[in-house]
Amino acid sequence: MAFLDSIPWWAALAAALTLGLAPFTPEPHIVEKLRMLFTGTLTRPLDMFDLALHAAPWLLFVAKLARMAVSRG
Fold it and tell me: Where are the alpha helices (DSSP H) in the chain?
């Protein structure tokens, strides 16, 4: 948990908005890969890695939010 606490909020948000959404056009990769996941077409290892890469900053941000909620509650 100390790892989550050591990451500043601005850095977690910046990572989610940049790496998490890149490339921005024609649509963010995370949107494309989630669509592939839900339709069952996410089968190539490269696509799975791409989903993990673009989802990681969002998961970090959500973990920081959850940590904050638990520590306050």
Answer: 2-6, 9-18, 29-39, 45-72
CA distance linking residue 10 with residue 47, whole number of Å: 28
Residue 73: is its pLDDT beyond 80?
no
Tell me whether residue 18 is exposed, middle or buried, using C-beta atoms within 10 angstroms of its C-beta: 0 to 12, 13 to 18, 19 or more: exposed
Report the predicted TM-score, pTM, of the whole model to 2 decimal places.
0.84
Q: Return d(Cα 21, Cα 24) in angstroms, integer.
A: 6
Contact (CB, 8 A) for 22 and 28 = yes
DSSP code at position 21: T
In sign, the C-alpha dihedral spanning 37, 41, 47, 48 is positive
- pLDDT 10s digits, 51-70: 999 999 999 999 999 999 98
